[in-house]
Amino acid sequence: MTPTRRTSPLRRTALAASAVVLTSALAACGGGSGSPDADAAEYAAPDADLAASITYGVWDQNQVPAIEENIAAFNEVYPDIDVTVNVTPFAEYWTKLQTQASSETLPDLFWMNGPNIGLYASNGMLEPITGAVEAGDIDPANYPQALVDLYTIDGVSYGVPKDFDTIGIWVNTALVEQAGVELPEDGWTWDEFQETAVEISEALADDGVYGAAGGMDGQTTYYNTIFQAGGTVVDDGASGYATPEAQAGLQFWTDLIASGGSPSIQQLTDTTADQWFTSGKLAMYWGGSWFRSALTDSDLAEDVTVLPLPSGEEQATVIHGVANVVSATSTEKQAAQALQVFLAGQEAQQQQGDSGAVIPAFEGTQSSFTASMPDADLQVFLDAVEYSRPLPVSLNSAEWNALETELLPQAFSGERPVADVATDLAEQMDAALAEE
Amino acid sequence: MTTSQTAPPAPARTGSAGRGGPAPSRGPRPEHTLWPWLFVAPLVAGIAVFYLWPIVQTAGYSFTETGPFGGSTFAGVDNYVALFQDPELYLSLGNTLLYTVIVLLGIPIAVGLASLLNLPGLRFAAVYRVLFFLPYVAMPTAVAMVWRVIFNGDFGILNRALAVVGIEGPYWISTPGAATAAVAVVGLWSSLGFSMIVLAAGLKSIPPELYEAAELDGATRWRQFRAITVPLLTPSIFFVLIITVIASFQVFDLLYAILGSSNPVLPRSMSLVYFFYREGFVANDKGYAAAIAMVIFLLIGLLTALQFRLQRRWVHSD
Q1: Which domain of life is it from (chain A) (predicted)?
Q2: Taking 60 as the threshold, does the pLDDT of residue A18 lie above it?
């Protein structure tokens, strides 16, 4: 680089170091090519003496104890199948999975979610479960229909849910009492909810308490209200944001923030809604059933109950659940499918439910979840299945999820009219969907 | 890190590594020419496999359209044409430059602090050194979590402190502009330790006789600092400058962890590497991401070359 004859050692080190540090900028971007062949689904339950060693990729450390129980029970049937559980935190799970998929080193069996199923299934990364269903080893009728549909891409099913979650309103009854507000006995309308939120905010303004909270997480907030208003987020490969129904669903949150019923989007970026709630500064939190585990051992747990979401034009809640899927490139496919089938079964799902971490998806195994917090009326989450709608997804959901995060704050803050922002969003989202 | 001079093991010569001594005249006898290469072979092999080959591959990908799981088709310079028309490139470049400039302010601070720590007779110098170095070895994510709390608009200690003196602080991490600056301040703070260690080593190599002579001539501490410390420290400062610029251009983890992936201002505050990450791993456009990576690579290379060119004007050599 520099043709100097005499370079001080330090400067030489600087040169060498810069070369090394510089190159590491690029090392992140390697990868393989070639897609695995997606041959027809072959399935046969293995003999009990099948010897194999498989890996199981998951992201939630909290569920590992229940998974280990599952595997112990699995090994009573198949003692020679050795299962290694790989836990990768959610934040890195998908990045890692993508590199593994590119290099054909996916775990034999792994967790899949709604936003990603389309991407993996349509690229031939997953083994369908059609064989197991035809053999009668998995019966889709045992699971919430919305979730079976979520994991069916182009008419081919790739997995059944191991658990599910719906959205409800977690209520801090102590704050509600302090504000002197009455909660509805059964069901409420949008207006009733908004009024209650504002009343609580005003009554407890001196303590910095808010009645309710919006936020940038569609699954727990605006997707629900969009469905309740009769709208859609993504339908048949097109954005639903241009419709008046979807915009009414967004307007709900703009109104709530404008009326002081909710902290602003900026406040909610700094401190998320669940943090407001767990710090005792939020009376009504729109949250998933998974929030239950955050309340374990907290001081708050005694004062918490759950109410159903308010209804707009109709009643609706978002449902989502994780599924176990088998890698199409697995070399131990038979063993992996055996575990997939076992985990979908009643015994394994009952074990999951008893752990209290999740609501198991298998019909009839959910009672232990509601029993885990008897005073909180967790039944609301189970009743909600009836009117639930699957989490809106497409082949590459992450791309338009980023657009939502970028644009919707302008609508929620009142910076621009909801209709304008939603129209922009629909346009950009349609462009992204067209590329899928 | 190695330097290029691996002297052949000539038996006749001993310890000619004195500073400023003449470079050993190498008589490259044929049977010895292989030895240096054998010694560096493991390192070269590692760099070749884990750095050079990926660079070649990335360069290759940048001319393709590559989906989420590979499967490339040749696309010529399409990615680059699209990239240079993409306003987000310039936005992220601007944010990266702002970040870099703020982090560079840490160098004069580090020079000052390192000289203070080097003052003769300072008690607990080792303790201070450890305290300043701790942020550098702490996990960026952990550092980010702590600063997220400090910057919190409603409950953060920073805004509480500002309120005492009557200033209403903004929502630091959710206001465009302020967010980039806030992240840069953390970047500055966590790089101080490393810069100080390098600079402290540089200070130790300044002959004490110079200060003694200056003192005899009646120079003040400040004068000594300006006339002796700073000039003789320029090689160390240059090294720190190079490293800091390169590291700043690669900022990702701090930004991602402090702002959070669902932060509405993130799209307006993203750095170049975040832009790369988003295109490559969120939008799954790996070919486009590879083009961004190449642009980052060339930019850093260019900036570094420029600095090596300019250093002759200000770096004091021997």
Answers
A1: Bacteria
A2: no
